[in-house]
Amino acid sequence: MADKVPELTNNGFNEFTKKGLVLVDFFAEWCMPCLMLAPILDELSDTFKGKIKFGKVNVSDDPALAQKFKVNSIPNLTLMKDGKVINQFIGAMSGDELEEKLNEYL
Hints:
Blueprint: H1 10-17, E1 21-27, H2 32-47, E2 52-58, H3 63-68, E3 76-81, E4 84-90, H4 95-103
Parallel strand pairs: 1-2
Antiparallel strand pairs: 1-3, 3-4
């Protein structure tokens, strides 16, 4: 998987998401659309640097975290502000489409 976007676990999740806008990618390594989305998220993490933080959670490694955020389908991109969910984008999408959606929150 890509390495620009840090992988979050239950331990550091709250600290990472408690302040500002954060996009969390709930994914699994066996999920082909998730794997296709990874380089797009890397690119967008550069585009939105200083405005939106990006993190990812492997639902196979951390099912409790996925359950807490009611992640039933992946890829699931959960947008949070100051620790609270403000939107979820489910399914694969293009970089342009996701960038447009994220710009609405800036």
